[in-house]
Design a protein that fits this description.
By secondary structure, this protein is of the alpha/beta class. It folds into two domains: 163 residues, Lyase, Ornithine Decarboxylase, Chain A, domain 1 (Beta Barrel), CATH 2.40.37; 244 residues, Alanine racemase (TIM Barrel). The chain is built from twelve helices and 21 strands. Strands 4, 14, 15, 16, 17, 18, 19, 20 and 21 form a nine-stranded mixed sheet that branches. An eight-stranded parallel β-barrel has the order 5-6-7-8-9-11-12-13, surrounded by four helices. Strands 1-2-3 form a three-stranded antiparallel sheet. Strand 11, helix 9 and strand 12 form a beta-alpha-beta unit. It is globular, with a radius of gyration of 23 Å. 48% of the residues are buried. Bound molecules: ligand LLP. Ligand LLP binds next to helix 11 and helix 12. Homodimer. It comes from Faucicola osloensis. Its cofactor is pyridoxal 5'-phosphate.
Length: 435
């Protein structure tokens, strides 16, 4: 949690920090991603720029796939974490399925070559149009969040003379012990169907002619660093599976929602292997196919946001480093007060370290990227914000008419532009003057 307390400054040792990040290393003084210098990328493509490692994305996907090899499973990458077509395409080629929440994400996955049969459709507000398209392409399952949605899916499927595969997203009322904005499995949250309501709504689904019950789904929150909340949720879901069996409702799969959290600074995070080892004994007894929808843990530490120090503004009370990225590029610190590490792309700065607030140039006091960081900064230094591959670019905006950043994929030792930096002119391309 970011604090305003100047005494609570945070010094991150860059060489130690990168040891926990598979994609990053220092070669002498230069920060590298898979053999490519990040300072060189900044020089060639400018800043702010998101850079992702193809190798690290695939390694994280593979860790999930391998860790659950003992049971039937399908990893469905949560598209919301990073939806760039090139990222989706790399995952699709590796065999990943996709968890989507809008028609827009469905279109992206299809454009990126994703297999519709490996898509699960989550989200509270699926429109009739979204449902129709999803049925036409033949997705694996709709994760249904309300009784009204069941009727809507049944009606659309009826018109198409199809049977829609569905799961109910049940809300196990488990405290995910994460930030309240990203905690979803408590009964006061807007998501899912309560434990109490689930048998009745499953029965409705069972009786509707154009629905086919295939599974049960839950998702209790994001940035869960420990396995226990997943275990608690699994226990609740298993109880429901047994109750449904007594109702004569048999299932084919269980979907446990998003994946593990990640290390941003020094959080103690369970490994993907440990996560699987703890869950597998219970899952094996069920004999169902497991679906998982990890997002953050696949892409967060496969990415950095590169930013340039633009203006140094030491004041009597605080030292401000105004950088060329801002809350429109990366909103996580402003929105969730999340701490993300900032490390230099070049070590051995000749200047003295000081305590800095790293801020953007947007006209809001909430526009900060990091506070009270011990850093040796000089004009034009290029810094890397780590952990930025997830919920970074996807949550960016054009606030203050700032064109969105460029995105780069490092693959096999080369930097590829996978999204051009927006031009200023593109900002008003959909706007019209009125006479
Ligand atoms: N499945 C569902 C239904 C979800 O709602 C989410 C995330 C996921 C899967 C992926 O969860 P993950 O593996 O990434 O934890 N913008 C926030 C995170 C919001 C997450 C919302 N749901 C952040 O920057 O921390």
């Amino acid at each position: 949690m970011i604090t305003n307390d100047a005494a609570a400054s945070l010094a991150i040792n860059p060489t130690e920090h990168v040891k926990s990040i598979n994609a990053l290393s220092y070669d002498g003084n230069a920060l590298m991603m898979d053999g490519v210098s990040l300072a060189d990328i900044a020089k060639t493509f400018g800043t702010p720029t998101y850079v992702y490692s193809q190798q690290a994305i695939l390694a994280a996907y593979q860790a999930y796939d391998d860790s659950f090899a003992e049971i039937d499973h399908q990893i469905c990458y949560a598209v919301k974490a990073n939806s760039n077509l090139a990222v989706l395409n790399e995952l699709a080629k590796a065999g990943s399925g996709f968890d989507i929440v809008t028609g827009g994400e469905l279109a992206r996955v299809l454009a990126a070559g994703g297999d519709p049969k490996k898509i699960v459709f989550s989200g509270l507000g699926k429109t009739a149009e979204d449902i129709r398209t999803a049925l036409e392409v033949g997705i694996a399952c709709f994760n249904v969040e309300s009784e009204a949605e069941l009727y809507r899916i049944n009606a659309v499927a009826g018109k198409l003379q199809k049977q829609a595969p569905i799961s109910l997203r049940v809300n196990p009322n488990v405290d995910a012990q994460t930030h309240p904005y990203i905690s979803t499995g408590l009964k006061e949250n807007k998501f899912g169907i309560t434990h109490e309501d689930a048998p009745r709504i499953y029965q409705i689904a069972h009786d509707l002619p154009h629905l086919k019950i295939v599974g049960i789904d839950c998702h209790i929150g994001s940035q869960l660093t420990q396995v226990q909340p997943f275990m608690d949720a699994l226990d609740k879901v298993i109880e429901m599976i047994h109750a449904l069996a007594k109702q004569g409702i048999a299932l084919e799969h269980i979907d446990l929602g998003g994946g593990l959290g990640v290390q941003y600074i020094d959080e103690d995070v369970a490994s993907i292997e440990e996560f699987a080892q703890l869950l597998l004994p219970k899952l094996k007894t069920l004999g169902l196919t497991l679906y998982l929808e990890p997002g953050r843990s696949i892409v967060a530490n496969a990415g950095v946001l590169l930013t340039r120090v633009d203006i140094l503004k030491p004041t009597e009370h605080k030292n401000f480093a105004i950088v060329d990225a801002a809350m429109n590029d990366l909103i996580r610190p402003a929105l969730y007060h999340s701490e993300m590490a900032v490390i230099p792309t070049q070590l051995n700065s000749p200047v003295e370290p000081k305590v800095w607030d790293m801020v953007g140039a947007i006209c809001e006091t909430g526009d900060f990227l990091a506070k009270n960081r011990v850093l040796a900064l000089a004009d034009n230094d290029i810094l890397a914000i780590t952990g930025a591959g997830a919920y970074g670019f996807v949550m960016s905006s054009n606030y203050n008419s700032r064109p969105r950043a460029c995105e780069i994929l490092v693959k096999e030792g080369h930097a590829h532009v996978i999204r051009e930096r927006e031009t200023v002119e593109s900002l008003w391309q959909n706007e019209k003057l009125v006479d």
